[in-house]
Design goal:
The structure holds three protein chains of three kinds. By secondary structure, chain B is mainly α. Chain B is built from two helices and no strands. The chains are: A alpha/beta, B mainly alpha, C mainly alpha. At the A-B interface, α9 and α10 of A face α2 of B.
Amino acid sequence: SSDAIFYYDETAQTKFQQEKPWTNDPHYFKRVKISALALLKMVVHARSGGTIEVMGLMQGKTDGDAIIVMDAFALPVEGTETRVNAQADAYEYMVDYSQTNKQAGRLENVVGWYHSHPGYGCWLSGIDVSTQMLNQQFQEPFLAVVIDPTRTVSAGKVEIGAFRTYPEGYKPPDEPVSEYQTIPLNKIEDFGVHCKQYYSLDITYFKSSLDSHLLDLLWNKYWVNTLSSSPLLGNGDYVAGQISDLAEKLEQAENQLSHSRFGPLIAPAQRKKEEESQLAKITCDSAKITVEQVHGLMSQVIKDILFNTVRQ
Amino acid sequence: ENSLLRQVSSLLRRLPAIESEKFQDDFLMEYNDTLLVSYLAMFTNC
Amino acid sequence: MDIEQRQAEHIEYFVKQASAVRGSALTTVIVDATSHPSLFAFSEILAVPNILELEGTENSMYLYLLRLFAQGTWTQYKNFTGNLPQLVPDQVLKLKQLTVLTLAETTKVLPYDLLMQELDVSNVRELEDFLINECMYVGIVRGKLDQLRRCFEVQFAAGRDLRPGQLASMIETLSDWLMTSDNLLVSIQEKIKWADTMSQLDKKHHKDIEEKVDEVKKTLS
C-alpha cells in the first residue's frame, strides 16, 4: 500500500488538468510530498554546486491539494540569482529531456523547479518570485522548491522550502507566523520586499519499499564516512560568514538605538518594539550559530573519547 | 576462531585512531573557538 | 574483513590438503601454502594434527617454517637460516609482506629507514614499489606514503596469527574500550538530564518574571 503512490493514473491527471481548481483559489495547493529519490537527487545536486546556485526541474503529479514530486533532474545552468531568467538557457534541454522521458515510459509531467540558496536560507528572491509567477501563468500546476545545502550540512537536516506565488495584485489574508530563519544582511531587503508575494507549503516525504531497502544498504556502505565528517571542519567558511553577518547586524542595531534618541518623537514605543524585535532576532541568530557549533564540537569530543583514549 | 581473532587484532591495532601533537593542538583550537563563540553568544543574550 | 573473506577459501583448501596427507608429502603442502599469493594466515593449518606430527621428525624444519610464517619476520628467518629450509622467491615475498604487518602492529608511522632495514631493501624507490604493489594493491595494508618525512603512515593493517600471550592483552584492550564506551553513554545521559532540567528551570524563571511584570503593571495602573 505504501507503493500505491507511485501509480500514475493518466485519466485522473488529465481530468484534473482540465478542471483547473487552482484558478479559483490562489491558496489551493497546500501540501507537497517529495519522494526520497527526488530529495536525494536535489540535495546532492545542490551540494555539488558549492557556493554557486544551481537549478533543476521536478517531475510528478497532483493529488487533490497536494503536489507529489516523484523525481527530479538537474539543468545545465548555474548562478540562478544573477540573471533574470536562468531557465532560458536550458529550454532546449528541458524539452529534449521531457520527450525522452515519455519515450522511456515515464509518464509524469514536470510539476515544478528547484534551485539552491547556498548559505542564505530557503525563501524566494525577487527574481525567483517573477520566475515562479511566470511559470504559474503558463505551466500550472507548478511548484518552486528552494534548498540550502550549506545550512543542511551545518544543521544536520535538509533545509528545504516549497513555495507558490500569489497572482499579481492578489492580497493574501494574514499569514500564520512561519518558522524564523536567519537571513544575511545583504539579502534581507530582497527577502522583505517579496515575502508577502508567496506562501510556503507543508512538505512530507515518502519512499517505496525498494527505496527503504536501498537506503539501508547505502547507509551500511557510507556510515563510516558520515560519522567521520564534521560540520566544524567542512563549513568553516560559512560559519565565519555567519559570525561576520551577525556582527554587522549588531552594529546596525546599535546605530539605530543611538539614533532613536535624537530622532523625531514619532511613536517611540513602536520604534522601541522594532528595535527590541531586531535585537531578539539577532539573539536568535547567535544562539543558532552557537548551538550548531556546540553540536559539531560534541560529536568531535565523543569521537575523540571513543577512538583516541583507548590504549593497547 | 582464528579468523575472528585476526580481525579483532587488526581492529585494535587501529586504536588510538589519531595520536599526535598536531592533532591535539588543532583539536584544542577548535574547542577554544567553540567556547569563544558560546561566550560571545551569552554576551549577546545578556 | 575483506582479506579474511578472501583467504577463508584458501585456508579451507590447505587445511583439507594437510588433513589428507602425512609425513614428507606435507612439505609440499607447506611450501604451497607459504607461497600462495593470497594467503596470510596459517594458524588453521598449524592446528591440523598431521602438521603437528612433523615435530621431531626429519621434516620438522617445515613445521618451524610454517610457525615462522604464522608469527615471525624476515629478520628472524635470516637469523635462523641454518635450521630452516631455503625459501623460494614467492616465500621470500610473502615473508616480507608479513614483516610489514608485524611492524605495523607496533607503530602507525613506519620510518623508511626501519622498513629498508627490516625488508633488506637498498633504496627508497624499491621500498615504495614494494609497499604499493605488494602490500597496498594486495589489500593487506592501507596507508599514506610521506616522501618528505620519509615514512609510511599506516591506516589499516590486516591481522596476523596471534602470538602466545597476545590474547590476554587484546581482551584487556577490549574491556578498556567497553568501559570507556559505557562511561561515555552514562555521561551523555547525565548531560541530557541536566539539559532538560535547566530548560525547565529556565522556562519557570521566564514565567515567574512575566508574572512579576504583570503584577507590577497592574499595581502601577
